[in-house]
Amino acid sequence: MGKQEDPKTVTRREVLKLAGTAAAFCTSFGFLHGGQTGGAVQGKHLGMNVNKELQLKWQRAEIKWYSGSEVLFSAPFPAKVLKHLQSDEMAAVEIKLFRTGQLLKNLGTIQAKH
Amino acid sequence: MAGPHEVLGMSRVLGIGTTEFLARYADNGGTTLRSEADGRCVFLTSSGCRVHPRRPLVCRLYPLGRSTNERGEERFALFPPQAECEAVAGRDGTIETFLGPQGVGPYFVWSRRYGELYRRMMGLLDRLDIEGKIDVPSADTPAEAAQAGSGSAGSGQEPDRAPLSSWQDVDASLAEYCAAKEIAMPTEIDDTIALHLRAMEEWLDDLESRLGEDQNDPKGAPES
User: Fold this and answer.
1) Contacts of B164 in chain A (CB under 8 A)
2) Which residues sit opposite B74 in a β-bridge?
3) Inter-axis angle of helices B170-181 and B189-211, to 10 degrees?
4) pLDDT at B190
5) Strand pairing partners for B162?
6) Residues A56-111: pLDDT tens digits?
7) B124 chain-A contacts, CB cut-off 8 A
């Protein structure tokens, strides 16, 4: 397949279909990915990554908001952020409140290695 | 768990299409079979399994579980005994003698082939995230986007039961593929699975070609 002239793009619909198909196959076949143990796919994909040892430590990070013991919101970190965290470099997380683009308050910054 | 090829096989035993099968018997985004209120498989009857000739791999393996590593090496494990299971299990045989009559060979091959596609999908998703090559044209409305993730549009299924991907519905996805290619739909199950794999490969070829070459190219990695 020859390269097309840039920019090469895919539509959001195609990305959704791709992600949905991958998720369906993951569940249907029991395929694993990243730092999970076992599975036919895991090792092959890890082979592409430089930080193999670090990826084996953990493979998912989540951010959660609580009200008491109730989880109000939970979301996994995007893969791009995950890769940065797994690089073992210093990472910073800021929690800021905005209104119409104006910063109202900075609730704090967390800096740490992972 | 039920892959698209297994859904296809079971649907043929029941004499229905995969679209109807997914609507009636699948759960969790079309990835698992429904259970009765007491936890029994929806196909288990007093006289046995309704889809036994084309039962999924996980049923053929039970009470064994199977995993393979990156070198294709197999490992088997024994599930803990289930009190309600009436199967008689002995310990005198070997894995080989147990699997022999189960007809698992083609299912291992299909799992490996679909696994290769899965690996390519994950490689593409990684690259999309890193390179930010997602285009959002104005015509690509949220409604259209939502539809892209659902296979059986208009099936009226509950959101958690509708297939996560149109590729899970082999009949519908191949009907579209064959119409576009102006070829006849295969009638035999094995031929249908082979064409489904080919159609998915072409779909991924197209996506990969539009994203350019991948320096890490997961597609070319050997299976073993």
Assistant:
1) 20-21, 23-24
2) B68
3) 70
4) 95
5) none
6) 455 677 777 777 777 778 777 777 777 777 666 777 777 788 888 888 887 777 77
7) 18
Of B6, B119, B124, which has the smallest distance from its Cβ to A44's Cβ?
B119
Q: Is residue B133 one of the residues assigned to a domain?
A: yes
The answer to whether position B84 is within a domain reads: no
Neighbouring C-beta atoms of residue B199, cutoff 10 Å: 19
B146 in a domain, yes or no? Answer: yes
Quick check: B115 and A41 CB within 8 A?
yes
Determine the Cα–Cα distance for residues B200 and B213; give it in Å rounded to an integer: 19
User: Domain range spanning residue B115?
Assistant: 4-61+104-220
Tell whether B12 is covered by a domain: yes
CB contact under 8 A, A9 and B134: yes
- The ipTM assigned to this model is 0.80
Strand partners of residue A74: A64
B124 interface with A at CB cutoff 8 Å: yes
